[in-house]
Design brief:
The structure is a single chain. This protein is an alpha+beta fold. Helices cover 17% and strands 39% of the residues. The protein contains three helices and twelve strands. The strands form two sheets. Strands 1, 2, 3, 4, 5, 6, 7 and 8 form an eight-stranded mixed β-sheet that branches. It has a four-stranded mixed β-sheet with strand order 11-10-9-12. It is globular, with a radius of gyration of 16 Å.
Length: 186
């Protein structure tokens, strides 16, 4: 376990579940390909906790509004999960779980930041055909991934999603020996 460095930046993400047209789902965004960091990567809505935010819940809801058009009033916050330290970016991230009681229309917020927004059915996420492990170009095996909705979900988002699906009893056995190389990343 890595310990946060002094000055680690506080951040929050929203793991937003809802009842969609294809059953229970979760909201994911895809970062714009033009960004300097994590370009084109799928993620939960989220970002740094601003001084004006009243903690991680407010930050996660604000970011979901800015990135995807999620109306905060339609979200019931279920809980916050323990902070997770991301050594690569030096962020201390608080996952916030929510239920989308009153779904709003979603669309990418700032086009320079978000390329796509998708409600991904849990059934697609747990389908063994959509599961794989990914390997960094250096040869290092990184961890679990999902191929859903024209996205390769990997890294922090896939690891957190896997943990949440396990905790919810949704995960199904899948071939963890299916390994693919990551595309070049920035």
């Amino acid at each position: 376990m890595f310990r946060p460095v002094d000055g680690a930046r506080a951040a929050a993400v929203l793991i937003l579940f809802g009842e969609g047209p294809d059953g229970p789902d979760v909201l994911l965004t895809e970062r714009a390909a033009t960004l300097n960091k994590h370009a084109g990567q799928p993620a939960f809505p989220g970002g740094r906790i601003d001084p004006e935010d009243d903690g991680p819940v407010a930050a996660a809801l604000r970011e979901a509004w800015e990135e995807a058009g999620v109306e905060p009033a339609g979200v019931d916050v279920l809980c916050t999960l323990p902070e997770l330290y991301l050594r690569h970016s030096e962020h201390l991230v608080t996952p916030v779980a929510g239920w989308w009681r009153e779904p709003s229309e979603i669309a990418p917020g700032h086009p320079g930041e978000v390329a796509m927004v998708a409600r991904v059915p849990i059934g697609e996420l747990v389908d063994p055909a959509n599961r794989l492990m990914v390997r960094h170009p250096s040869g290092l095996r990184l961890g679990p991934a999902f191929r859903v909705r024209d996205m390769l979900v990997w890294g922090f988002t896939a690891a957190l999603l896997t943990t949440v699906l396990d905790a919810g009893g949704w995960n199904r056995p899948w071939d963890e020996d299916r390994v693919e190389d990551l595309p070049p990343v920035r």
